[in-house]
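User:
Hi there, any thoughts?
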Amino acid sequence: MNEAFSYEERDGVLAGPVRSPRNSAKHLGAGSIHDDATAQKLGFRGGTVAGSLHMEQFPPLLVAAFGEDWLRTGGLSLYFKYATTDNEPVQAFVRAPEAGDRRTDVWMDDARDHRVADGSANLGGPDPDSTLRQRMAAMPAPEDLRILADVEAGTTGERLPTRISGEALANRLAVITEPLPAYTDASIYGERIATPALQVQVMRPGERSMLPRNGDYGVGLFGAIELQLHQGPVFVEHDYECQSTVLAVGETPKTEYLYYEAALYEPGSASKILSMIMMLRFMKASSRLWR
């Protein structure tokens, strides 16, 4: 863990401390975007740090901006623009909201002034104008899909059981850039709460039932993530159910991508606890369908 959290306010912007996230998925090895050799073959500088780990630098700043309620009904919507590698320093920024505002801009830069991510954050439930919803609304229609040719917007997977284990929390806390007391102290909310990376993890089981596997998706990576708490927090070692729906499918010269939305529920309940919009990118150069 890092030293105690502190931030500065400069010209209406809250600037968090510089942190150096670890590429904690490097162990996944060849075929993963987190593997140095695989990533370098695809034009990256090395194995990439997952965008979900970058999200973990924002909660203390957003609690400073919006108050503790952000941990119950807050949202964070990030589009990832520049991939970082193991232990590279990055800094999170939040524009200080005016009194009564429930939405603000957020971003992350590295030490060489690359914009690692930009986006929005909000309080009080879903933001229809979040960064990712605006991007989806402006998406052009795809012209040539091969990797995701069988994926259709509106496809909904089955509702599946999901859970964050205590071991998963311990693994995150060993390398987390910005710990909060509630990640370890169950007395604050009655149970230990999940970090953003673990919130992403608990929402991903629905991917396989939603995405037909054609045998060659190639190398994938997170392109963008939005986490929105409805009735949070999300707890560790707590049984949930999740369900996912494809929102949109698109392409760029180098990738095919999809957006999907996942929802987290108490077992048997219809009330959302957390929702996630995930953009998954698949590198064309890594798939035989593009050779």
